[in-house]
Amino acid sequence: MQNKLTGYKAEQRVMEDLVNALLAEQFLDSHASVELLSKAEWDALVTQDAQMKAVQEQFGAGAAQATNVYRWQLEDAVIVFPVRVSIAQPYWFEASYGVYKVNLHTGKAAQLSKLGPLELMGHVVTLYANDPVAVDPYGAVKFMHMIEQTLLQTAFSLENEQPTAHILGLPQRESLLAAERKAGYRDRPFHPVSKVKQGWAYDECNSYTAEFGRPIKLNWMAVKQDYVVTGLEEGKELFPVDLLLSDEERSQISDELNRRGLGEGAYTAIPVHPWQMTSILPEQIKKELEEGICIPLETETGTFYATSSVRSLMPETESPYHVKLPLGIYSLGGLRYLSAIKLMNGQQAERLMRHAVERDAVLKQKLFLCDETKWWAYLPEDRDLFADYPRHLSTMVREYPAELVQDADIRLLPMSALSVYDSSENGHIFDEWLKLIGSDGRESAAVVQLFHEVLVSYFEICFRLFRLGMMPEVHGQNCVLVWKQSKIEGLLLRDHDALRVHVPWLNANGLEDPAYTLRAGYPNSLYHEQPQKLLTFFQMLGIQVNSYAILRSVSQYYGLSEASLWKELQTCLKEAMQKAELPDEVASVLHEALFVKAVWPWKQVVRPLLKKQTMRVPGSMPYGQGEVANPFHILAEAQGLSKEAQLTGLG
Fold it and tell me: Which terminus, N or C, of the chain has the lesser number of Cβ atoms within 10 Å?
């Protein structure tokens, strides 16, 4: 029974994300076989067509909110599903509505069935059978397989109970781990295949994902010192074991190195994820293993736990050192290895942000950065930074700021954890926070107050960095709120390797080009000639992915209208712009992009996975950008509609 229930919930979630991605990315637009009917047109059709009336009777109760119905004519069937007008994108599909297929057989009664994600996507692929550029046949097969695995792995995830009450009341380390576990239930919001770790079955998910909360013992690989490159300053002698292990655990590694003649600085012990050690490295570095350049150690030591990103692990102890390790799995369409070049660029980005902090008194007080300069990577003799296989043997030890981890009153709260809720009591982190500020949790104003406090703090820091010519990858997994005694004290950033820059603004503020090392002849998204292009990543990752995920979870869990929260989000943006003390040029760019332009950029998630790939950096996540109407224009139009229209759509 439990498996059936989790399977049903998984299908509902994946279906909602898939249909909405297809709608936002306009997969059903401009096809003669697909009609978008108004409510009046649909009602008229139902009175004339018994088959469509039968479909309507199957629509979920929530479909009363629907403003339109899609009718998609197949060769011998019709697909029908309702949608409602939305602010985030033109139309929104709720899983409770359902997608239905009516098989048409001459002389026989119609056969009605409810479609799942795989069946629906199969019809989308057929719709694009004559457009192999938009939907590459090989890409379509891979995507269908990803959906299949996503359904399974989402169901695995849902077998576990979410951490609910007392996340903020736990000691800091336990609190962060609980928040990471909670974030893991949603992963990348709105992405229909974000949960999938391709190739992992139940045992791997059970052992290595955040939701299951299992301890993970590090494996270790001895790598000949001449083949190790590091981010440490020259002459500084420090090794992963010094940061990640206790004295007793270090002795275990040291004893084995000495016993096997690998000690006295000849080899560096690099931590390896246990799955990576057995499943990927034996083939990836076969030659190095044969030649003794890399030697697996027998000692398994150092206990860590998976965070929501899976390849970043946090320690069992109160240590400030977390570890990021490569994993040879595909997630979000990209291979999750960890290359030396990424680590180098991340170090350059961090250096730039630390210089930026010194130029802004508010950033100096409110922006915190994880130290990501301690890393080690295997590099082959030819020193080719862009070779594929060495990317699978490396490590980055991420150090959390001492002023945060040593303050017993501080809680570190990944913003991604705020996009998740459970239907049970204390299902959202705001519940506990509300109690701490003396609210019973049913007061809408108090919920909106917390929503406001989170977003204003976050937006101000993003805008202060933008005015200096940079924008980090500000999705909810990378951005960690610094929460202290019911107040947001600042923002902690981690994973710096995707810091995007506009060099003229850097230079105007006394900052230098970070001098990223990039693969020649391949596109990059780190440098932007126009500040407007830099801002698109804030709009897509900061609002579309991060802020809207929080907004939607708050709306659904507390019963607040999305329109009211979008209005509050708009207020937060304007307040943050005032607080950020922006020069006229920067304020103008922000105001124009956020409030004046008719369209916003939209981060595509399905089209890039289906599109025929031409030139792409190996292992990178497929990228695509579309457009949607400016949500604040939609909001303004909605506020001018009749009361009835607002209630059916945006109210």
Answer: N
> Residue length, the chain?
651
Cα 617–Cα 605–Cα 15 angle in degrees, nearest 5: 145
Residue indicated by tokens 């490159």: 229
- Going by C-beta distance under 8 Å and a sequence separation of 6 or more, which residues neighbour residue 364? 357, 358
Strand, coil or helix: what is 219?
strand
Could you read off the pLDDT of 379-423 as tens digits, one per residue? 988 777 777 667 899 999 999 999 999 999 999 999 999 999 988
Structure tokens at 264: 């006295």
Q: How many CB atoms lie within 10 A of CB 534?
A: 21
Sheet hosting strand 487-493, strand order edge to edge:
367-369, 487-493, 479-484, 410-414
DSSP state of 527: B
pLDDT per position as a tens digit, 427-475? 999 999 999 999 977 789 999 999 999 999 999 999 999 999 999 999 9
Q: Which two tokens stand for residue 461?
A: 């820091």
Beta strand 91-92 with 77-85 is: antiparallel
Residues 171/406, Cβ–Cβ less than 8 Å: no
CA distance 186 to 417: 8
Signed CA dihedral, 250, 253, 258, 263: sign only? negative
What is the three-state SS of 473-515? CCCCCCEEEEEECCEEEEEEECCCCCCEECHHHHHHCCCCCCC
